């Protein structure tokens, strides 16, 4: 009875409260809690608990949205940063190869076949962007050079780029061409001659002509080999400067201007870009070490350390060119005898050309503000169509023309060369006389690396006196 009286008294007090009288919420609250006054505190706790959960969920959703917006904004800003600052080695846009590898048996078979055919990871190359970014590997001082801003600093020189290839992978050839057109000022690029040396892998003009109207796709009249193919293409070129490039390269930003600027100052010079490294397996682009071209006494090309005192924003002497990548005035190229057209296929032509220019009044300079990436292969993926060792034959030819008495050092170091017929040397010896070339001794004492004199075998030391 006492309990009923207390409940009745509580209801009267509640209904008399002006704060709660007539409110829709309060009527609902009373209907929920009318069964017993002891339930009201429990209902209040439940409502507070539910409101707390709802508020926490709302806050969680808001925080999630804020995080997503921040992540999206950060990713966009990072992408813009990497695109405008591609030189960082941490740039994730530069190394997509880390995510591309053969997974299925069919893909592994495709990978092995392509690697055997091209001696690099063509499976990966086919899946990379044809217009990918590469890191700017130049010295920071290069970016402030006046020839980048002054279009009049090239003596009206325009470039004919020459690319000779045989059975090149379509993706690397296309990436080569895209890099040239994307990173070359149009007014300095006269044409790009693409010479197919009788490939049989199905490549055709349809695979490259769509890239630019400046491409001149040609098919060699017969199997020429790289050396003769370059001579053939050079005769077709109409630009004032010839730039020879391989078909598996990627030119870097600002690559063309330093070469043309140097040739505008030194008309009898060969200008070389610094050759960066594109890994044959991962296609990762990385800067070349600080090196300069040299050679050994068995006439093999070698990289020599570049002295630390040499600045990396100014051209410097290069005793030997690496071979595949060079620029030269067309008039100078032909006046200095082009390539030795009696050499076979490939090999040794870079040393022959280097000795010839240095000994006959020309120069060879490396231009470090010009960078070109090159896929360095561990082996040649094609054989000798001439049926003999082209490097050995070519080396015997150049030794008999340009080394003078020092050719005996070559035969001593390379016994296989003894007795090899060098072919007809008449035209090259006549060229030597016409150009008034100096001796190889002069080249050793004034141009070659000092290591060449130190490494000269004792029995030949008298040749220096």
TrEMBL record:
Swiss-Prot/TrEMBL GO biological process terms: protein O-linked glycosylation; regulation of Notch signaling pathway
Superkingdom of the source species: Eukaryota
GO cellular component term, pick one: Golgi apparatus
GO molecular function, one term: Notch binding
Stated name of the protein: Uncharacterized protein
Protein species of origin: Macrostomum lignano
Lineage, uppermost ranks: Eukaryota, Metazoa, Spiralia, Lophotrochozoa, Platyhelminthes
